[in-house]
Specification:
Forms a one-to-one complex with cytochrome c. Belongs to the peroxidase family. Cytochrome c peroxidase subfamily. This is Peroxidase. The structure is a single chain. The protein has 373 residues and is mainly alpha-helical. The chain has one domain (8-34, 116-164, 183-368): Peroxidase, domain 2 (Orthogonal Bundle). It is built from 17 helices and five strands. A three-stranded antiparallel β-sheet has the order 3-4-5. A two-stranded antiparallel sheet has the order 1-2. The longest helix has 19 residues, at 26-44. Bound molecules: protoporphyrin IX containing FE. Residues 123-124, 126-127, 130, 163, 224, 226, 233, 250-251, 253-254, 256-260, 263-264, 266, 312, 314, 346 line the site of protoporphyrin IX containing FE (HEM).
């Protein structure tokens, strides 16, 4: 029988399993889970491997060039370049199926490249999608994911974005495979893919972002500072247009991934299952005892019982503040409610500041697992 971690029971089982595992073995376990997902996919699906890209803009000029140099040299081109040259897809004509192919390519690459961090690039893809979108200012009417301005300095060099080159580099080959997709669309779609492939909720996603120039770079300081508390969090997220419930739902993404001393200066994962999307962030925040970590680094909290998990001061503020805590309690109790609210608010985040064409349809992508069933 196949174990699907997409079901609630599966999520709880996987969460329980990983909950009981000691600090040192977490990375290996997560790698195994991701590899299991890969095996499940490979043994059941014929869809994704076939989803080699069919692309656009190199198009006829490239084919003509190839023909001129001589038929033989055509064989020295990669399959990807040939497919790109033959494709007629553009951002204007791309269909749901075209975007599902991009989703599949990202999801497959997540499975193939399982040596990174806890076994997956998925958490850092979520962080890339969030940091490219979270620069939005409702009052200044600029920022957000539309222009993919993090491709340029100074935005790529803002302290909050340290380490995100790993995510941008990971997606470079996907961009080559699908040259018709804008970078803003690719980064946000990658965030959606990452959440869904880690057994998170289905996130509705729309295309329509258009790459801009470095003029679109936003001023430093629009993203939150983890060393601060509730006033700062509210100031930053209210600027984007979120309310308290939405803020708490969004930060639940800290169920996955980890902090890195060479990036933010903070250290460690928030949960025992950093590559499975769960409501464990809230459960642990509420139910574990947290104390300040005694170390040569910025102030952060560690769980008293295993000393293997962490909370940022900004995470801890969610239980210090009464209004925020109310939602932490709700989401800790009810994973389905968290998934529902997170899906809505993450879509809202990714759409901040984007001028979609009137009537543009949100897409729901199928996970690799679902396509294999
Ligand atoms: C008060 C708000 C927030 C603060 C202060 C904050 C801060 C941080 C910090 C310091 C890191 C560690 C970076 C590193 O060292 O690699 C991090 C990682 C992460 N954040 Fe947040 N964050 C916030 C909100 C969010 C939101 C809204 C999302 C998504 C919806 C998110 C998703 C993530 C993910 C997935 C990671 C893990 C990345 C990895 O594993 O490389 N965060 N965050």
């Amino acid at each position: 029988m196949k174990l699907s971690i997409n079901s609630l029971a599966g999520r709880q089982a996987s969460s329980l399993l990983t909950r009981s595992i000691a600090r040192s073995s977490v990375p290996a376990v997560r790698r195994n889970l991701f590899a299991q997902a890969a095996r499940r996919f490979n043994s059941t699906s014929s869809e994704a491997p076939k989803s080699k890209p069919i692309q656009s803009s190199i198009s006829l000029a490239a084919i003509a060039g190839v023909a001129l140099v001589g038929g033989a040299s055509y064989y020295f081109l990669s399959d990807e370049t040939k497919a790109a040259a033959l494709s007629k897809v553009t951002a204007e004509t791309a269909t749901y199926e075209d975007y599902q192919k991009v989703y599949n390519a990202i999801a497959q690459k997540l499975i193939d490249e399982d040596e990174y961090d806890d076994g997956s690039y998925a958490p850092i893809l979520i962080r890339l999608a969030w940091h490219s979108s979270g620069t939005y200012s409702a009052s200044a009417h600029n920022g957000g994911s539309n222009a993919a301005s993090m491709r340029f300095k100074p935005e790529s060099a803002h302290g909050a974005n340290a380490g995100l080159e790993h995510a941008r580099n990971f997606l470079e080959s996907i961009q080559k495979q699908f040259p018709w997709i804008s970078t803003g669309d690719l980064w946000t779609l990658a965030g959606v893919t990452a959440i869904q492939e880690m057994s998170g909720p289905t996130i509705e996603w729309r295309s329509g972002r258009v790459d801009g120039s470095e003029k679109a770079c936003t001023p430093d300081g629009r993203l939150p500072d983890a060393s601060q508390g509730q006033d700062h969090i509210r100031k930053i997220f209210y600027t984007m247009g979120f309310n308290d419930q939405e803020i708490v739902a969004l930060i639940g993404a800290h169920a996955v991934g980890r902090c890195h001393t060479d990036r933010s200066g903070f250290d460690g994962p928030w949960t025992f299952s950093p590559t499975v999307f769960t409501n464990d962030f809230y459960k642990l925040l509420l139910n574990e005892k947290w104390e300040e970590r005694n170390w040569d680094g910025p102030k952060q909290y560690e769980d008293v019982s295993t000393k293997s998990l962490m909370m940022l001061p900004s995470d801890y503020a969610l239980i210090q503040d009464k209004q925020f805590k109310k939602y932490v309690e709700k989401y800790a109790k009810d994973c389905d409610l968290f998934f529902k609210d997170f899906a809505t608010v993450f879509q809202k985040l990714l759409e901040l500041g984007v001028d979609f064409k009137p009537g543009s349809t949100p897409y729901k992508f199928k996970t690799l697992d679902a396509q294999g069933e």
